[in-house]
Design a protein that fits this description.
By secondary structure, the protein is an alpha+beta fold. The chain folds into 3 domains: about 50 residues, no CATH class; about 110 residues, GMP Synthetase, Chain A, domain 3; about 80 residues, Orthogonal Bundle (Non-ribosomal Peptide Synthetase Peptidyl Carrier Protein, Chain A), CATH 1.10.1200.10. The chain contains 9 helices and 9 strands. Strands 1, 2, 3 and 4 form a 4-stranded antiparallel β-sheet that branches. Helix 5 packs antiparallel against helix 6 and helix 5 packs across helix 8. The N and C termini lie far apart (about 65 Å).
């Protein structure tokens, strides 16, 4: 049912409720919680139903698709958004292994929808393809603001996705600072390489390569591009430690051969 107690239609998302002659009377010594989830049947206007707190979608041929808990329901710009619904759509993409959708806010501003994901077989990422596929199914207000590739999806000791760890560890840098433009030719050259490899329009010199979708294959490609462009020795490990354009530019400027320095002031 929806938030108003109405039965949802085919293809719509609602909370799963149970009705049975053998339904429990409530939670022991938890009167408030009992009142919250054991309610009068809103359709029949009599009897009790149990609100599970789980979300599901009715399919046209009968079965109900389970979408997870409704604890991940938020409101952005006046729209009520089911984060699990975004995850469900994203997980169905051929190249996506697992996704986690999180609402993240900064300095009291309205939350933004951030998508974290892993891919099957470490496939190269096409962010435009992800976004365009989501737009075919989801309304514009449910499209994530940013997509972040993860090599491995962090899990808790019980095997569940560790959402808190993801947010604390991979907090989007754009919430802290807007995209900072290149200050010199070296940074601009590196930025152009990033945009080509990551297939993005903008990144900023303080963004991190892996957080913008740079997997191990793209890291190797980045190393080759930098070696070819600047004629320097640089490794994948160097790139991992020098995660931003700003840091890479500083390293390259410090290690450029004398005859190359005039080309990249």
């Amino acid at each position: 049912m929806d938030n108003n107690g109405n039965e949802v239609g085919d293809g719509e998302v609602g909370e799963l409720v149970y009705k049975s002659d053998y339904l429990a009377l409530g939670y022991l010594n938890q009167l408030e919680k009992t009142k919250e989830v054991f309610i009068t049947d809103p359709v029949m206007k009599k009897g009790k139903v149990f609100k599970t707190g789980d979300l599901g979608r009715k399919t046209a041929n009968g079965p109900i698709e389970f979408l997870g808990r409704n604890d991940f329901q938020i409101k952005i710009r006046g729209y009520r958004i089911e984060l699990n619904e975004i995850e469900s759509v994203m997980d169905k993409l051929d190249f996506i292994d697992k996704s986690v959708i999180m609402p993240i806010s900064h300095k009291g501003k309205e939350s933004q929808i951030i998508a974290y994901f892993t891919t099957k077989n470490n496939e190269a990422i096409n962010y435009n393809a992800i976004e365009q596929n989501l737009k075919r199914t989801l309304p514009s207000y449910m499209i994530p603001t940013r997509f972040y590739y993860l090599d491995v999806m962090p899990l808790t000791t019980t095997g569940k996705i560790d959402r808190k760890f993801i947010v604390d560890t991979f907090r989007p840098d754009f919430l802290e600072e807007k995209n900072v433009k290149p200050k010199n030719k070296t940074e601009k050259t590196i930025e152009n390489i990033w945009k080509k490899l990551l297939n993005i329009k903008d990144c900023g010199i303080k963004s991190e390569f892996t957080r913008l979708g740079g997997n191990s294959l793209l890291l190797t490609s980045l190393v080759l591009e930098l070696q070819n462009k600047f004629k320097i020795n640089i490794s994948v490990n160097d790139i991992i430690n020098l995660s931003t354009i700003e840091k890479q530019a500083e390293y390259i400027s410090a290690n450029l051969k004398q005859d190359e320095q005039s080309r990249f002031p």
